[in-house]
Model the fold of this input.
Amino acid sequence: MRAPAEKPLPDLPGARDLPQAVVCKAQATVSLTGTWRHLRPEYRRATAPCQTACPLGNDIEGFISRLAEGSPIDAWHLLVETNPLPAVCGRVCFKPCEARCSRSRLDQPLAIRDLERVAGDEAVAREVPLPRLATRKNRNVAVVGGGPAGLGFAYHAARLGYLPTVFEQNEKAGGLLRYGIPEYRLPEKILDAELERMSGCGIELRTNKRMGRDFSLGELRGFAAVFVATGLQAPRPFHLALPDSRRILPATQFLAKIKAKAPLPSHGRIVVVGGGSAAVDAARSALRLGARATIVCLEERSQMPADNDECREAEREGVAIEDRTSVLDLGLDRSGVLLVLGRVESFSLSDRAAAIRCATGSERLLQADLVVLATGQVVDREPLAAFDWAGAEECEPTKPQGEGPIVLFGGDLAGALGGKARPATVAEALASGMRAGRALHEKLAAAHPPSPPPGLEAEAINLAYFARSTRERPLMLPVAERVAGFDEVCRGLSRPAAQREAGRCFHCGRCTGCDNCWLFCPDLAVARSNDGVGYQIDLAYCKGCAICAEECPRGAISLVEERK
Amino acid sequence: MRKLLTANHAVSHAVRLARVEVIAAYPITPQTPIVEELSEMCASGALAAKFIKVESEHSAMACCIGAESAGARSFTATSSQGLALMHELLHWAAGARLPIVMAEVNRALGPGWNIWADQTDSLAQRDTGWLQFYCESAQEVLDSVLIAYRVAEQASLPAMVAYDAFFLSHTAEVVEVPSQESVDRYLPPYRPKLELGVEAPAAFGALTSPDYFMEFRLKAEQAMEAAADMATQAMEEFAGLFGRRYYPLEAYSSDDAELILVVTGSAASTARVVIDRLRGSGKRVGLVKVKLFRPSPKEEIRRLLGRAAKVAIVDRNLSLGAGGIVAQEIAAALANEPARPAIHSYIAGLGGRDITEETLEEIVEDALSQVRARPRPLWVGVRS
Done:
């Protein structure tokens, strides 16, 4: 049986000294049962893409889970950890979350905004108070401007234990929410309910207090900090010289007058100039005043900055949109305003100048009783003269006057002050206030809030495990009934529809205990935890095949490289 | 206790008596009644085994490998295509030195789709490192399962007990079912030489470099060779306890025979009748039944067949292009004998065609009449 070897064999144990079969006992450096694992699976919590996209960082997956469980108030409690106004944002948010929803890779994104509204409305209906969390610190902070940014700051400062006082120039707080967004999109009673609830959590509101008119910066010396969020109060200068006339007015005034039921000049034909959200709000409001409404905007219809759903509803209601159109001239005649319009070939807009090129010979006339200019807002610097904001950054605590309080800027104002310009949206404004509140707390209390878990990679979702489903649509007021008044157009999701919609959530980045990892592990290395929540991996048996991570539908398992 | 049993149910009782701890099997005709009966025994509590339902024969063998590695006596049963599907893991079970026992009901491999007796399926697995026992009656099947466990566990090698479809698997005979006490005396609990344990994790069957591979093969080959004597001894002890005597190679009326007929499986019973009749008519013919095919009982082949003038081998199997497998093995075992018999090779009974007394008589008469053996096997009972 033994043939003579041609060259001597290496000096190794012979057959007699070997075990009967190949076996390696507990010598491996990585796993007791083998050396080949180079990736180690780890259960993790990753932040869902919707939450990453939300300016406020709302725990969207969390609140939707609670809605799916049939607990809207629990869902609301999770939302108000970041957002004090879920019923408001559930109506008017520009929903960047939905644009990032993982389900849009399979069918349609979840109706996250509609779901937020369900939770928000339930809490309003049941008059649930906001929770008071931190113990009082007896440190007063001032907020200049009672819009969403100021309110966001006040809310988060109060949650962190400070005593905020909000100085608001108008009769009521809310800013743009109250005076800019029409009733048919955001009923005042909803706004009132959510703001009233905020005053119940320790926020003092002083209305009819305009800085520079009713008080000065010096009078705020007693406060530990001042958050300035006065927004954009002045209309952006129009690119043409405007005749002085009651028949030409900025959108903010137009919308505020409607809210205040103030008289307007005769308005059979209203032309709104601009392509943003305010322009669409103005035009749809005009319809509700019985006017014929036309929007004139530079952009192509599909490129308008306003929310596409809003534009579509405006058209269904009867608003005419003259896109790629510029106002070349504008003058008064006996019956109203005469506009000369031109076909836009190209344009570029900046804060200071507008460069618009129109096709020669494309001029035409448009007659209007009233022209509403929705071409943007800029900072009104007059009440802010006392501040030195050279180098001021959004939400960065600064102490410009040595002795005085810490000053922070936020909201639309901060964006316009040369800080990083952000989309001027309600969620952004609230988020700006939240960031400022947390930054202040970090400075005063040296408290560092935990950062959220890392964002989920899109490819971590295994679409094979999800069935297609149809997005639920909210109930809408019939078009014929809408223009008769300012009744709310969108009536939200019905209870059963909301439950179904919540059930469509993938729960990106969170283990739901689906058992896939446990079922698929070829080495039986995955075990259910003794407490019944989640799983454990026995690394003595795991070979690092990564099947568990691949088969996890929602990216709740990550792979970590082994370092030997 | 005497019972009327098919060979399939005789296996079920043998498995029960062997106190098998893990059974993993996938149904296939003609094997299925074995594991049906076993599942009922497990359900009724007559057998305290874990019955694992699997999705394929490959998985069944994988389960047995896992169970046996963890130190559990395990069992599976299959036939034909099912055995072919296990092929990869048959090598693994042997290389890992796991004494799994399997009942293998010999059935033809398709196509043509055929569920009847043919030994090509198990003989085609002759190089996988499994002991192979062939049987001629339901009683022998029951006894061979017990013997197989005994030898397999002693040699640390897997074993299959093979028998013909329907002629044995579905035909009831009176079978003496031994008592549990006597079987317990014959077959002690399984004590693995290498045990996989949760407390002492280890990698079994890991990468083995050229520095060691040959040494492990050599050890397995030495174990296989030693198993031939172990089988002889296990059969002797079995006879002592139970009174039924088996041999790796059984000689019948062959001492002075000029021509020895060689058969395996159920045809052996038919052959005994034929040999008796031919003896009665004055012909010096005998019979050798091959029971142990792996390890090849080469010494016994030389001892029992070496002195005859002619050997006529009936193969109920076919290695395409090479003829009957048993004939090849016997010819190889006799190759270096100075005075060796002429090897007459016959192919018969493929795919369940009956091997009758007439078939065997025809073979004997043919072999006796041939001056010199043919270069190729003769196909008996085929329509030309």
About this structure: Chain B touches chain A at residues 95-97, 156, 193-194, 200-206, 208, 211-212, 215-216, 218-221, 223 (CB under 8 Å). The two ends of chain B are 49 Å apart (CA to CA).
